[in-house]
Amino acid sequence: LELNLVPVHSENGEFAGVLLVLQDVTAVRRLERVRSEFVANVSHELKTPIAAVKGFAETLLSGGVKDEETARSFLQIIFDESDRLNRLIGDILELSKVESRRVPLVFSPIEIDAFIDKTVQVIAAQAEKKAISVETDLEEGLYVEADEDRLRQIMMNLLANGISYTPEGGKVLVRARSLDEDHIAISISDTGIGIPKKDLPRIFERFYRVDKARSRSSGGTGLGLSIVKHLVELHKGTITVTSEVGEGSTFTIVLPVLQESAITG
Ligand code: ADP
């Protein structure tokens, strides 16, 4: 609780008394702390690629690199790190939008099996490169009211993770089923590296990565799952994960069939 004394004056400017204002500031403080932690994280994440770009550009500019092959490899690093910066900034902006709920969702009825088949086709090329098969097991006739672009974003993120954290020759399985009259469940399972028990509760936190080096080399920013979780929650849904190290992971989204706003108009 925070106590504030506010002097009160009468209309002719004379001192009339003091107003006591008691305010519960814990929520405000918590928000401030979360915000400043976020800014610190963001700065740290941006500094690494910027330092690389700057360092390699400096070396090239100094004229110390004589052979062309080395020069090209330095330029490639500069290019890759700029690309990474671009992705980071894109994800940071996206996260800040979904966190502050500044995303207008446009709900429409979506037929789940056709929607998932289409989404899987888009990601197929990425899976083929690693000889990963993407299979589906979809109950027919399932509909949800959702923002189609956002739902695709959720699915693409989880599918991309499944492919990225699964070794060559593995499998990703997408299932959809009705849970009860009002809810459906979509799960994305992989036969990948899995997630250690101790990390499971934290993987939806922004910038949290089980293995930084691995996430970096696969182009990850550590923001994907935070964005996904917010998007699922904007749909009044939930997301959970189960995993076994060395065997694979399953992410399950439960979504209400109808959105409240859509029911009440
Ligand atoms: P990233 O950009 O690093 O993939 P995410 O927010 O998408 O960030 O995921 C956070 C972390 O969770 C990843 O760095 C990885 O350690 C772990 N993770 C996410 N999906 C999977 C998966 N399907 N299998 C194993 N680990 C995963």
TrEMBL record:
Cite the Histidine kinase domain residue spans from the record.
41-259
Could you name the domain of life of the organism this protein comes from? Bacteria
Subcellular location per UniProt equals: Cell membrane
Q: What is this protein called?
A: histidine kinase
**Organism listed in the record:** Paenibacillus thailandensis
Q: What is the lineage of its organism?
A: Bacteria, Bacillati, Bacillota, Bacilli, Bacillales
Q: What would be the name of the gene that encodes this protein?
A: pnpS
The shown residues of the full protein are 333 to 597 of 597
